[in-house]
Amino acid sequence: MAIKGITVKYCHIVTFFLMFGYLFFFRMADKFGLPLSSGQTNLIQMIIVLRVVGVAFEINGSWLAVGKAKKSESKEELLSKDGIVKDADFLEIINPTFIDLFHYSFNYIGLLTGPYYRYRTFDDYFRLPFSKYVDCFGFTINTLRMVPLHISLYLALSNIWPLEYVLSEEHNNRHFVYRMLYPWALFAAFRQRIYSGMTLAESVCTSVGFGAYPVKGRNKSGHGPTVGYLSLKEMSDDEAKRTQYDFNTVESVDMWGSETVVTLRDSMKVWNKAVQYWVAMVVYKRFPIKPLKIHAAFFVSVIWHGYHAGYFFCIYFCPFYLMAEDIYYKLYYKDATGTKKKIIGFIMWFLRSHSKSYQAVAFLLLTFDRIWIYYSSMHHYWYGVWLVFLILGYILKQVHKINRLKKDADSNVGNIREKNEKTQ
């Protein structure tokens, strides 16, 4: 009702606050004398919030982009470097009816565990011929091939290293190195559970051809085609039969990338990719205060997951780690080569992995009292390490800046002397 009943200029903002207010009320129902719903219902509500808010921003964004295109004097602004029309979908108005919005919001594909997809993807599934010609069976089998391994690893790891053990006295009496590395096992088990769940969710899409687009659209998770969208819409059935497809639009996680990327920033891009896309498009790119964009994005991610302290400890502390990581990345890793790059990369990977594991324990323990018991038993050491890394990073950054200025000054003096010698 908010989307269709309010002007396009403000429908996305009103819808955002209405849906997150509803989600907050839904989770706090017991405070109002109502029974709490099950965890499965909570997952469904989370996906519905993403869809309803997302389509409101799609509608608003399409009107803004079309208006900007009309003001543009030339088409050059709409072209990529290779001359292909960039994001051509934004040149047409997205204006679904109330019935369309209802069907999109409650479409069973992806409703329980995702992945998130745009209204455009939902509409294309019924209007374009791609789902008829893509190899659904082949893609589904390929998607599911690793699920048995993920489930087996999850059962084995969670049985050998249970979560509740970190709150026991026996755990506290263990050697500090053992306790320091225990979160690695917990987070490894958690990842296997998420991998299997997201993969099964993707297989629902691939089995019915949902989210299939021609490869030449350079499709991205959550978004779909990024180039030449209008030409894809005009594709004939004969062309659709011969073209090559992918399901990148509904890809939730890059498992290999999640395990191997060096930095926390990169690991966030390959983890729950469709939801990350939603956060980027709805919050990060639209938030008006540039220095607070990253904090706004993480804060919305936290309240979308829930109000438990564990989500704040796990998710909202990431920007502070990123502050330190970015410094070392630019100073030492970005321009490194060969063996030096591999060594620095391994160190950064280890620190990134350890940080995520340490934070994941809070995500799993959820409540503040349980988190505080565990972190107190570890003397909150990793936050101290973060602080030391951050302070040291700022010092090294300033030293590097001073050395660079001195080097540039010496170089300028040398050039001046060389010119004077030549003139003489």
Automatic annotation (TrEMBL):
It comes from the Eukaryota. This is Uncharacterized protein. It comes from Dendrolimus kikuchii.
